[in-house]
Design a protein that fits this description.
Layout lengths: L1 H30 L5 E13 L2 E12 L4 E3 L1 H6 L9 H13 L3 H12 L6 H10 L7
Antiparallel strand pairs: 1-2, 2-3
Helix pairs in contact: 3-4, 3-5, 4-5
């Protein structure tokens, strides 16, 4: 019963998160500098979260000043987008990898806790390699 409730909560929270993100994107679109950011279209990304995969349609813009293409929602959230892990998943995976015996153990611990395969041991290793060390004072 507990597992069934957990799965239902994950599904419900996933829907709430999707709605919240898409509403934020809508608000950003309305409040953006329209002379600078030209709305091109909506594109879908998938975020891996504690609740499972969340597919979000977000606005894609062209920055007329810098000549680059951006997702203002991603910038606002400081999120990398396209197939990325949520910051909480990434933090948990890295913490388990650093304090635990191995990347594989971190992968299996997250899978056991959340009930689905979240992140591979190699993805954990790659994320850990990308982190910059913080110098001591």
């Amino acid at each position: 019963m507990e597992q069934l409730v957990w799965r239902q909560l994950q599904e419900t929270f996933s829907k709430v998160m999707k709605t919240l993100l898409e509403d934020m994107d809508k608000q950003i679109a309305e409040e953006r500098n329209k002379k600078r950011y030209r709305l091109l279209d909506k594109r879908t990304t998938t975020m891996i979260s504690l609740f499972g995969e969340i597919k979000v349609k977000r606005n894609y813009y062209r920055d007329r000043e810098k000549g680059e293409y951006v997702y203002l929602l991603d910038r606002s959230l400081e999120f990398e987008g396209t197939g990325s892990f949520s910051p909480l998943i990434e933090e948990a995976a890295l913490e388990l990898a650093i304090t635990g015996p191995s990347y594989r153990k971190a992968e299996h611990t997250l899978e056991t806790l959340l009930g689905y395969r979240v992140i591979s041991h190699e993805a954990i290793r790659q994320h850990l390699l990308q982190i910059e060390s913080i110098p001591k004072e």
